[in-house]
Design goal:
alpha/beta; TIM Barrel; globular; binds 4-methyl-5-hydroxyethylthiazole phosphate; binds magnesium ion
């Protein structure tokens, strides 16, 4: 079972790493239990340092998921990996992380959802549901209808992503998502925002 809120910390959104860590700690205080660390800069050394510090500061009560990089997931003592369509395949990821850790896969259309359903992924992400500023070159917006369609194609836990905020999150869950993944609407006031999400989504 996934929690209703899947928080994503995108390293590029923070002026410095202390703000990133402080944000993570606020999310923890709001009882966030699933958190992805994402850094598209390609600086693997910095990623590992930040990831290990996140693990150290947040302790074991939060599941930490590494975006893209199976090697850094293992090196940082994270709980799982999230991959997209151009990263290692689920079979490839499993060769690195084994069967026990979590694996999530991003999809953007019905064909990809069907394909991901046949893999060993523990959950499937779909999106962007709405327009987003947090991803470079996003795929076409799928809307709530895209969430409804995805729901008919898999029984795996479904995470919706892209432009989801406190105002529209309930409609996304009602369309069939199990969880909402959020970057920007957690940034300004992380603790209050996460508490709002939990209050709205129950
Ligand atoms: N994948 C699809 S949309 C997106 C990612 C990583 C960004 C989501 O960020 P936000 O700010 O919650 O729209
Ligand atoms: Mg990726």
């Amino acid at each position: 079972m996934l929690p209703r809120l899947y928080a994503i910390l995108d390293a590029s959104s923070f002026p410095d790493h202390e703000v990133l860590f402080a944000t993570a700690e606020e999310l923890l205080a709001a009882r966030v239990t699933l958190l992805q660390y994402r850094d598209k800069s390609g600086n693997a050394r910095r990623m590992l340092e930040q990831a290990r510090e996140l693990r150290r500061r947040l302790g074991g009560s939060v599941k930490l998921i590494m975006n893209d990089r199976s090697d850094l997931c293992l090196a940082a003592g994270f709980d799982g990996v999230h991959v997209g369509q151009e990263d290692l395949s689920p079979v490839g990821v499993r060769k690195v992380i084994g069967e026990r850790l979590w694996l999530g896969e991003s999809t953007h259309n019905p064909e990809q959802v069907k394909e991901a359903d046949r893999t060993s992924a523990d959950y499937i992400a779909i999106g962007p549901v709405f327009s987003t500023m947090s991803k470079a070159n996003p795929d076409p917006i799928i809307g709530l209808e895209g969430v409804r369609v995805a729901r008919t194609l898999t029984r795996k836990p479904l995470v919706a992503i892209g432009g989801i905020n406190r105002s529209n999150c309930l409609s996304v869950i009602e369309a069939g998502a199990d969880s909402v993944a959020v970057i920007s609407d957690l940034m300004r006031e992380p603790r209050k925002s996460a508490e709002d999400f939990f209050r709205i989504l129950g």
